[in-house]
Design goal:
alpha+beta; Transferase(Phosphotransferase), domain 1; Alpha-Beta Plaits; seven-stranded antiparallel sheet; four-stranded antiparallel sheet; 12 helices; RNA binding; Nucleotide-bd_a/b_plait_sf; transferase
Length: 435
């Protein structure tokens, strides 16, 4: 039985918030089957992530609505404190489109009578960490590492800077900005900031150890070292530590390379500017040089060692990098969950160059895909990128996800009707969000 506090009124739910996998203090098999939330039963569909003090689950209700539940462990390190901290911050900063939405809070009583504190949250999609892994996996077989498109880097940079500008105006420091804490919302088509467990009011830092290794600003590194030695620094960290973290994240997205070892090296400490210049010079980007230089200068302004000289989020948003419009590539649409689905292994190359067959295939594919949701448009490129793949745009990401679920692994053994009544095109249809 759950004792509930009513959530703020809201009408929509999107897709997954996750916690970074770290030390686990709870048996992975001991996950709840359901939660009773606000008088309604929500079924646990999967565990999205687990940390020392909390686990995150994807849940669905009888109305087919989906959300995320972040359950803080009652008997783990700092579970209750973490719940009260994150709840307080989220309740204070609600309403920004680039920050995860808190729907409500409740207490869950499990089958053995243990009470746990829970947050009911907006369910988001893929994280920047996952996007980096997908990009790295595409560089196997001796191919060089490839960063993300300028459109994707710009989109993420603008969205998170908007979130940070708002957060900092409200007097908060996030203090744990990293790729795992930036997630994509398919329905809102933007990146959102999550996980405020280490956040604090600027000038009133109540968390000793902040930021994650690899994304930790120099002043936070010093403060953490002093705290570990039982000493206190002269002053708490400021909002500038969030800009440092974002600078590293954007550099990783541009280069396609994880930079943890690089930013911890002596070479970085001696001359980080030279390393940033080398990364930009060696990355074979196919877009014009001017926006690349603007991005490089923006990242440099975030990675200055002196926090007082580092750019603010509001100043960063004025960078000329954001005045240049970019269009998404087909591979961007595949990487980011959206109303657009990609169908693989379906169209034979010979069908692309016969106009009558091509038009018939377009019509038949649209008719088939409309069985699973409202189709806005359908595209089958005749040339690369995306040659022979089918891109289906649904009215919303919910229809797109449902179509993915129903069509994954399905085999079509019928003929494609053509004017000349050619033979079968037996093939399998595999739905993908960027496999």
């Amino acid at each position: 039985m759950a004792h509930c506090v009513p959530p703020e009124p809201t009408a929509k739910v999107q897709s997954p918030e996750s916690i970074p996998p770290s030390q686990v203090s709870v048996d992975q098999s001991m996950r709840p089957v359901l939660f009773e939330i606000f008088g309604e039963i929500w079924t646990v569909q999967s565990r999205l992530g687990q940390g020392v003090s909390a686990s995150v689950y994807q849940v669905s209700s009888g109305r087919a609505a989906t959300a995320a539940v972040k359950e803080f462990q009652a008997d783990s390190q700092g579970g209750d404190y973490g719940y009260h901290k994150e709840r307080a911050v989220l309740e204070d900063i609600q309403g920004h489109k680039n920050i995860v939405t808190l729907y409500g809070v409740f207490t869950n009583h499990n089958c053995v009578g243990v009470a746990t504190r829970c947050l009911l949250l907006e369910l988001l999609d893929v994280s920047v960490s996952e996007l980096l892994v997908r990009r790295s996996s595409g560089a196997k077989g001796g191919r060089p590492q490839k960063g993300h498109s300028m459109w994707l880097v710009q989109h993420c940079a603008r969205d998170i800077l908007e979130a940070l500008a708002f957060l900092h105006r409200e007097g908060y420091v996030h203090a744990d900005l990293k790729p795992r804490n930036i997630l994509w919302s398919a329905d809102d088509e933007c990146f959102k900031l999550i996980d405020f467990g280490l956040s604090f009011k600027q000038g009133n830092q109540d968390v000793k150890y902040i930021q994650t290794d690899g994304y930790r600003a120099p002043e936070a590194e010093l403060q953490n070292s002093l705290a570990q030695a039982g000493m206190e620094g002269d002053s708490g960290c400021t909002a500038a530590i969030d800009l440092w973290s974002l600078g590293v994240i954007l550099l990783e997205m541009f280069s396609g390379i994880k930079l943890k070892d690089t930013v911890r090296s002596q070479e970085w400490k001696d001359n980080s500017v030279a390393i940033v210049n080398h990364i930009f010079a060696s990355n074979g980007v196919t877009c014009p040089a001017i926006p690349v230089y603007h991005l490089r200068d923006l990242i440099k302004s975030m990675l200055l060692n002196n926090p007082k000289q580092r750019c603010t989020a509001e100043a960063a948003l004025l960078s000329p990098f954001f005045s240049i419009p970019f269009a998404p590539h087909i591979e961007d649409l595949v990487l980011l969950p959206s109303p657009v689905l990609r169908l693989l292994n379906l169209i034979d190359d010979s069908h692309l160059h016969n106009e009558e067959e091509y038009e018939d295939i377009l019509e038949d594919m649209k008719e088939e895909c409309q069985k699973y949701g409202s189709v806005v448009s359908l595209l089958i490129p005749k040339e690369n990128p995306g040659k022979g793949q089918v891109f289906v745009e649904y009215a919303n990401s919910s229809d797109s996800k449902e179509a993915q679920r129903l069509l994954t692994g399905r085999t079509f053994d019928g003929r494609f009707p053509t004017q000349r009544d050619k033979g079968f095109l037996p093939s399998s249809m595999v739905m993908s969000f960027g496999s």
